[in-house]
Design goal:
This protein is α+β, with helices and mostly antiparallel strands. 41% of the residues lie in helices and 20% in strands. Helix 2 runs parallel beside helix 3.
Length: 99
């Protein structure tokens, strides 16, 4: 069974990720991301901006069906996280699964 929350925890713990809007957009512009995890119930402007930039860059978007506080909790941060950019997936299978 596929569990996005477990894969996010593994990717943030064992891989390389860009956490947050600014770091994610910076890495998109450097062509350094394999995918972006996006809290779809986050701020509308951020969701639209990252979706637009990813579509132009051809980067896969993995939609996290929750808000930014829930995404922050899943990746072990005590603050809200709107997006996570996957640089290296580590031990997770996040890039192999279809979410």
């Amino acid at each position: 069974m596929v569990d996005l929350n477990s894969d996010i925890r593994l990717a943030t713990g064992t891989g390389k990720v860009a956490i947050g809007y600014k770091d994610t957009v910076r890495m998109i512009n450097k062509n350094g991301l394999k995918a972006v995890i996006l809290a779809v119930k986050g701020k509308k402007e951020i969701v639209e901006d990252i979706t637009h930039v990813c579509s132009i860059a051809g980067i896969r978007i993995i939609r996290f069906d929750g808000n930014s506080i829930e995404l922050g909790t899943v990746c072990g941060k005590p603050y809200s996280v709107n997006s996570i950019g996957i640089i290296e997936e580590g031990n997770s299978k996040i890039l192999d699964e279809s979410y």
